[in-house]
Specification:
By secondary structure, the protein is an alpha/beta fold. It has two domains: 6-210, Rossmann fold (3-Layer(aba) Sandwich); 223-348, Aspartate Aminotransferase, domain 1 (Alpha-Beta Complex), CATH 3.90.1150. The chain has helices spanning 6-13, 39-45, 95-98, 117-132, 176-188, 223-232, 260-269, 309-323, 341-346, 350-356, 362-379; strands at residues 22-27, 50-56, 74-75, 82-85, 103-107, 135-139, 192-195, 252-255, 275-282, 294-301. It is globular and about 65 Å long.
């Protein structure tokens, strides 16, 4: 049975939410219905919806911008509506862009991972809408890597950033609508309505929904990449390629100074639950080591129910540090005086310090369990499914 999206529920039975209102829409390339029709076009063409503005997250409304590339505000050529960038000069709607709106709709497919920037975008829009006295409607979408599994440390507030906008574990096991409900009650307090899914349950992965998989990011092109992402995104914090600029982003791990066969053998010897590794060679077309031959490992998930991506990548990072002490380095801060990327991704400096000290990374997993349990208990109050 195919999952019915919040977008479809809105159009079929909840038009009362938009009746007589001037509407803005936050959308991305994966904001489509089961027939691959974009929410931008569906809302714009609907006779009972007055869509007057669009808002684009990272990668833009049409997904034509690479990771980290600033996106300019513009006019959408298909609808002739203004597109206000939320990943350019500002990361949240300005009062001017909300002044003529009664309602802003968020229709974003998130990754179920704290440092995926659509999380911050949704929360920042909710904050701006509260300040502007604008209502928010979230059209819910599935938690792509299921809604049961949670993993990783809670963000420490001193490390809040656009890749860590709220105290959440790395993998939080909620739909974007459920997450919005939780954060709204905790500290945002906007006028929020979530249009829920139908025919979706927490144990489902995206490929069990019957829906087409449309990448919300050019660097998460498959569900395989998304399954690994809670762990392999941590590779971004070191001088290693995470496979950007290849056909397998977030599945490849490598660098020019690695011996592929040796690394794959070392990682397979760890006997990580649900994962296997093979030697791989690649030349990134952009990003780290652009144009250079890299060697490393291709990560395969053999059992996604058993695989724990965050815990697994801790072991991978520690192995690389121990095997290549003279070559392995943590990346420097993106901006002078700021925290290192690995600390922002992890949500504290504990991971970096643990690995640099040569202490077992398993201690980190034990440390995060109390906070994770508290989060599970809290989030249960906001679950819709």
């Amino acid at each position: 049975m195919t999952t019915i999206l919040g977008l479809e529920v809105l159009l079929e039975s909840r038009l009362d939410l938009v009746a007589g209102k001037r509407v803005g829409l936050v959308a991305c390339p994966s904001s489509v219905d089961r027939h691959l029709r974009s929410s931008v076009e569906l809302l714009h063409q609907h006779p009972d919806i007055n869509l007057v503005a669009l808002f684009g997250p990272e990668h833009g409304i049409r997904g034509d911008a690479q990771a980290g590339a600033k996106v300019d505000s513009t006019v959408d050529p298909l609808t002739q509506l203004p597109v206000h960038s939320l990943y350019g000069k500002t990361q949240r709607p300005s009062p001017d862009t909300l002044r003529d709106l009664d309602l802003i709709i968020i229709d974003l497919q998130d990754a179920g991972v704290r440092f995926y920037t659509f999380v911050a975008t949704a929360l920042y829009v909710m904050q701006a809408a509260r300040e502007a006295d604008t209502s928010v409607v979230i059209l819910d979408r599935p938690a792509p890597i299921n809604g049961n599994q949670v993993e990783g440390p809670m963000l420490e507030t001193a490390y809040s950033s656009f890749v860590g906008p709220a105290p959440l574990p790395i993998r939080y096991g909620l739909t974007i609508g459920e997450l919005a409900r939780l954060r709204n009650e905790q500290d945002i307090h906007c006028d929020l309505t979530v249009v829920p899914l139908r025919n979706w349950s927490r144990e489902m992965w995206y490929d069990q929904t019957g829906l087409p998989f449309v990448p919300s990011s050019p660097n998460l092109p498959t569900l395989d990449a998304m399954t690994l992402y809670p762990g392999t995104c941590l590779i971004e914090g070191a001088n290693l390629s995470e496979g950007r600029g290849t056909t397998r982003p977030f599945e490849y791990i490598g660098a020019p100074w690695i011996k592929a066969e040796s690394l794959a053998a070392e990682l397979n010897a760890l006997d990580l639950a649900g994962a296997r590794f093979r030697p791989v060679y690649f030349v990134p077309s952009f990003g780290k080591y652009q144009g250079e031959l890299c060697a490393g490992a291709h990560v395969y998930v053999s059992d996604r129910e058993q695989f724990q991506p965050v815990s697994a990548l801790l072991r991978v990072l520690q192995t690389l540090k121990r095997s290549h002490p003279d070559s392995f380095q943590w990346r420097k801060p993106w901006l002078p005086g700021r925290q290192r990327p690995i600390d922002l991704l992890w949500g504290s400096d504990r991971l970096r310090r643990q690995i640099d000290a040569g202490r077992p990374v398993e201690e980190l997993a034990a440390r995060w369990q109390p906070g994770l349990q508290q989060f599970k208990e809290l989030s249960g109050d906001y679950m819709l499914y």
